[in-house]
Amino acid sequence: MDPSGRARMAQLGAKLMLAHAALVAEAREGRLTLPVLRSDPPILLRPTGDTVHLVGGSAGPLGGDQLRLDVTVRRNACLRLRSAAASVVLPGPTASSLHLTITIESGGHLDWRPEPAVSVAGGSHEQVVDVELQGDATMEWTETVVLGRSGEPSGDWSSLMRVVRDGAVAVHQHLRVGPDHVGSDGPAVMDGRRVSAARLIVGSSARPDCVSVSDTGAWTRVGLASDIEQTQVVSDSVAEIVALLDIGCTPAT
User: Fold this and answer.
1) What is the Cβ-side half-sphere exposure of residue 174, based on CA atoms within 13 angstroms?
2) pTM score, whole prediction
């Protein structure tokens, strides 16, 4: 860490983390290769076949941590990204942040599906995802956030996602939930539930829009373009979220 970073840590009175990890995936002779695989604690990258797992090198993120991960999927490569365990957003002197920059070249595919992030009381986290899609690149992106540990209030969570395809904006959405975001507990966002999941699929024909509400949660699927669809689910448990993400529903009328 440079001197300015150490000075900032001393000023805040906490051991904050600045990290910048990177990953490049290529297709070579029918196999996935990783010419760039650079971990930077607490972001540790562990490859297994066509999958790379994100492994937390420490607890957190802790408030004040500033983390970045760059992922490039080269032409015709197919990469799956998972995490070894849930991440727990812990309180600190300022909000923690994670910036994900994703580039997928023509013919490439990324399947992003980490374990849930848990926003605990007093914590605040800001996540920004910038995705660049080239040509016929495809993607499936799933993200789950849990508001608070069992029996506890939640912290604040902000997630901004921007998807640009061949220079044109395809998706721009912002989720902000938690006690500092007035109205986020209402029917338009969380509907009083504590778990939210979103799945964005780019590159497959969008299915009909759907809405489904039950005692276990609410489920919506919306076509954002002819080949882009998003599913949004809120529920009270991660197990229910996983089940709801994979079910169908009656098309909206």
Assistant:
1) 4
2) 0.87
